[in-house]
Amino acid sequence: MYIKETKKVTKYLERVVKTKCDVCQKEIPNFDETKDLRKSRYFEVTTGHHLWENDSIDSIRDYNICPDCIQKFIKNYIKNVENTYYINIETTVASEERYSDEEYEEGE
User: Fold this and answer.
1) Distance CA 57, CA 59 (A)
2) Whole-model pTM?
C-alpha cells in the first residue's frame, strides 16, 4: 500500500515568443499579431544522416526558414552531395502558443 500526500510543485516551461529565420535572421511575425497565415508561415527543416556511424545523432540539425530563403537553403544543401543524406521540411505558422520540450524546475 502507498501512503500519499499532495504537494504544490512549480514547473517552468519555455515558451516560444519570437521566431527568426536561420538564414537571413529576419523575424517571422507571429500569427497572434498578424492574423494572416501567409505572413506568419515558415518552414521547419531538419537535416542529418542515418548512416550506421556513431555520429548520426550529432549530424541532426534543425532550422527555421522563412519563405524567402527556403529555395536558397535547399539548393545550397543539395549542392554538397557528399553530405546530403536526409532532409525533412514541414510548413508551420509562427505563434506564441508553442512550448519547447524542455522543462525547468523552480530555481534553475
Assistant:
1) 5
2) 0.70
Q: For 26, which DSSP code?
A: P
Q: What pLDDT is attached to residue 53?
A: 67
- Written as nine digits, the cell of 64 is 527555421
Residues linked to residue 42 through DSSP beta bridges, in sequence order: 92
Cell of 8: 504544490
Q: Give the residue ranges of DSSP H helices in 1-108.
A: 31-34, 37-40, 70-79
Residue 8: which residues within 8 A CB-CB, separation 6 or more?
none
Which residue from 68, 64, 67, 61 is spatially nearest to 87, judged by alpha carbons? 61
Taking the alpha carbons at both ends of the chain, their separation in whole angstroms is 34
User: In Å, how far are 18, 83, 85, 88 from 33, measured between CA atoms?
Assistant: 11, 38, 37, 28
Nearest to 86 by CA among 65, 64, 66, 56: 56
Q: What is the mean pLDDT of the chain?
A: 81
